[in-house]
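Hey Z.,

So I finally got round to the iron/sulfur cluster thing we talked about over coffee. Here's the setup:
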Amino acid sequence: MTIDWTLRARDVVAGSLLSGSEALALLAAPPADHPDILAAAAWLRRRGFKMSVKLNYLVNVRSGLCPEDCTYCSQRLGSDADVLKYSWLSPDEASAQAQAGVAGGARRVCLVASGRGPSTRDVERVAQMAEGIKAADESIEVCACIGFVDEAATARRTRASTLTTTTSTPRAASTEICSTHTYDDRVETVTAARNAGLSPCSGLIIGMGETDEDIVDTLSDLVALGVESIPVNFLMPFEGTPMAGRWDLTPERCLRVLAPETEIRIAGGREMHLRSQQPVALTIANSLFLGDYLTSNARPRPALASLRPPHRPHPARGHRR
Ligand code: SF4
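And the result:
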C-alpha cells in the first residue's frame, strides 16, 4: 500500500481516521518514508495540541510486594529485582513528594500503587492524598493508578480526576504476559472510570515481542473505549524479570508508535530506547513524565550498570506501569 502521509494527515483532520490496514502500513513503511511519517505526525500534533507538552509526575505510593505476575514488571510476584519495597506512604509523605514535581512544572500528579486493586481503606488513603495535593494547589490534576477498580462508585471515591489502569498488553498475548489478571480486567477499570465521570487513562508497552497487528489492535481498543490519555512505555528488560535481555526496539520503531490523536505520554524507557531521538519524539507526542519512573531512574546512575546493553547509552532499572 502506497500512502502519501502528508495528504493522509489532512484527511485525518477532516475526520477520516487511519484504518487498521493504514496503521499497519505506517508501522511497516520502508525507512525512506520515515521523514514523511514524522512530518505528518508532527503536523497533526501541532494542529491538535500546538507545541504544548503536559508534564506529569509520578509518586510511587506503594512499591513492590505485588501479588500479580506481569512479566515485564520488576515489582511482580517472585521478582528478585533490586527495587524498593514499601507499603503505603502517608498522605503527608505523598503530598510532599508531589510538591517536588509541581515545583518542577508538573501539572498532573500520578499516584501509583503496586497491587491488584485497592481495599476500601486504600481508596480512603488515595482520597486523602488527592485532597492534600489539591489543597496545596487546586489546579493540579490528580491521577490514581491503583490496580483494578470495577465500580464507578469506587473510582469516584478516590477523589482523583483521572484513573489509570495497568499497562495494556495485546489481548492475544495477554495470558502469556500475565497469568493473574486478564485483558478484560483492564477494560473493566477503564469502563468504571468513564462511568464515574473520570478521565480514563491506559498505557501501552512495546518491545515485548508484539506484532504490528498487536499494536494496532490494542490502540484501536483503547480509542474505542474512550481512553483519553495513553502513556507509551518502551520495555526496559530489567534483570530479575522474564523479559531480561530482550532488546527489540529501535528509535525509529518507537517514534512510529507515537501518534497525536489523543494525549500521548512518553513514559518509561524513553531515555533507553529513543536515545538521541527524544527531542524528535516531542514533536509527535504531547505529554511526558518528569523525574524518575516507578522503579527506574530517568537518568543513568553508576550503580545501575547491570542493565546496560552492549551499545545502549542510557540504562535504567525497572519499569513503570
Ligand atoms: S504491572 Fe502492576 S499489577 Fe503488574 S506486577 Fe507490576 S505492579 Fe503488579
